[in-house]
Design goal:
Radius of gyration: 15 Å
Structural class: alpha/beta
CATH topology: YbaK protein
Order of helices and strands: HEHEEHEHEHEEHE
Distance between the termini: 25 Å
Mean pLDDT: 88
Number of helices: 6
Number of strands: 8
Helix content: 10-25%
Shape: globular
CATH architecture: Alpha-Beta Complex
Largest sheet: 8 strands, mixed
CATH class: Alpha Beta
C-alpha cells in the first residue's frame, strides 16, 4: 500500500485525519521542530525480534524512555530483544528505517507480527504517526487507529512499558492532547 492509498483507505472508512507534510525526519531528535507544530501524542516505533524469531512492533510515546532489557517479559517475548533488520522491516511492513509506523501494519500479516501500544499513548486522544513515509505525519484519534488496525486483523495490546530504573515513571503522558475535527 502506498501512503496515498493508506490515506484514501482511512478516509473511505470515515476516519477523521489531518496529515501534515514536512521534511524527512529519521529520528525522534530530528522530529522535535515538526512535533512542536502538530498537537497530540507522538510516537517512536521499535521494530523488534525475540530469540525465537517472533516479531513485535512496539509504539511508545516519543519522549518516554523504554527499558529494552526488561521489555521482553512485558510484551511476551522470549529472551532478549534485538532490532529487526532493514530487510525484514521492508519485507513485513513495506517501509524503510525512519518511516516505521503502526499504520504500516496494514501491509503485514497479523500472524507474523504482534503490535504493542504504550499506555501513555493509548491514554491520549490523538496519536500522530507517519503514513508509511517520513515526510508526512498523520494525526488521528487513538480509538480510530485501533479500530483501523483491527479491520486489518491486528490486535492492539495496550501495555505499560518498562522504563529504566533511574527514569521517572511520569514522562509527560497527557501533554499535547488535541482534538481532530469531525
Amino acid at each position: 500500500m502506498t501512503p496515498q492509498q493508506l490515506l484514501a483507505a482511512l478516509d473511505q472508512r470515515g476516519y477523521a485525519t489531518i496529515t501534515t507534510e514536512h521534511e524527512a525526519v529519521f529520528t525522534v531528535a530530528e522530529s522535535q521542530h515538526v512535533k512542536a507544530r502538530i498537537p497530540g501524542g507522538h510516537t517512536k516505533n521499535l521494530f523488534l525480534k525475540d530469540k525465537k524469531g517472533r516479531i513485535f512492533l512496539v509504539t511508545a510515546e516519543s519522549e518516554s524512555p523504554v527499558d529494552l532489557k526488561r521489555l521482553h517479559p512485558v510484551i511476551g517475548g522470549s529472551g532478549r530483544l534485538s532490532f529487526g533488520s532493514a530487510e525484514l522491516l521492508g519485507e513485513l511492513l513495506g517501509v524503510e528505517p525512519g518511516s516505521v509506523t503502526p499504520l504500516a501494519l496494514v501491509n503485514a500479516s497479523p500472524q507474523k507480527i504482534s503490535f504493542v501500544l504504550d499506555r501513555r499513548l493509548a491514554d491520549q486522544e490523538i496519536i500522530n504517526a507517519h503514513p508509511l513515509i517520513n515526510t508526512m505525519t498523520t494525526s488521528m484519534r487513538v480509538a480510530d487507529l485501533i479500530a483501523f488496525l483491527a479491520e486489518h486483523g491486528h490486535e492492539t495490546r495496550i501495555l505499560d512499558l518498562p522504563v529504566p530504573p533511574d527514569e521517572s515513571a511520569d514522562s509527560g503522558a497527557g501533554q499535547n492532547d488535541a482534538a481532530i475535527p469531525s
